[in-house]
Amino acid sequence: MPAGLGALATHRLVRWGKDARSPRLGLRCSGRARPGRGERRSDVGVREAVVPFEVLWGDADPSGLIYYPSVFRYVAQAESALYRQLGYTVRAMIAEGFANPRAHVEADFRKPLWVHDTGTCRVWVGRVGNSSVRLDFALTKNGDDEPAVTGHLVMVFVDPEAIRPIPVPEVLRRAFGADEGTGDDRFMPGSP
């Protein structure tokens, strides 16, 4: 099975719960049990997700260093895990009348990641605005204290038919803890 498909298949095997881990991938999610089919989570602040990564041969440039677009694939996997904790898939979002395209993506490469390096990609809610959400991320190699790659992405919530900005859906505002204030250091890499 191709690596990408195996990762997707494994994510379905995760027993969701507080700091639950997949036996094969070690996917960790903060929050409580995964919602049932058709349910949405808004009763608990779900503000981060952590997924493992391995720099495979196809993820690297000819020198063996990670090829920069691979970072964004790992970030997308962690972002997907974050939304799945809330019971959302892309189809579910569109069915409920919203989509969240990227308006800005930024990354700082602080340390090299080589072929066969493994680690974790952590994504957390950095800020919730009126119609946008900023997700911060960090990729940390196993055994390192400091992240190899840090960055953020800003998504704007839109009506999927008109492609016009709309307010962040209330269920997501509550789940992301918008009323508690976001953007604080509690969710920075290395914080408890």
From TrEMBL:
Protein keywords: Hydrolase
Top-rank lineage group of the source organism: Bacteria
MF-aspect GO terms: fatty acyl-CoA hydrolase activity
Signal peptide: none
Pfam family name, one: 4HBT_2
InterPro entries: 4-hydroxybenzoyl-CoA_TE (IPR050563), HotDog_dom_sf (IPR029069)
Matches recorded under SUPFAM superfamilies: Thioesterase/thiol ester dehydrase-isomerase (SSF54637)
Database matches in PANTHER family: 4-HYDROXYBENZOYL-COA THIOESTERASE FAMILY MEMBER (PTHR31793), NOVEL THIOESTERASE SUPERFAMILY DOMAIN AND SAPOSIN A-TYPE DOMAIN CONTAINING PROTEIN (0610012H03RIK) (PTHR31793:SF27)
Assigned protein family: Belongs to the 4-hydroxybenzoyl-CoA thioesterase family.
The protein's name: Acyl-CoA thioesterase
The organism of origin for this protein: Thermorudis peleae
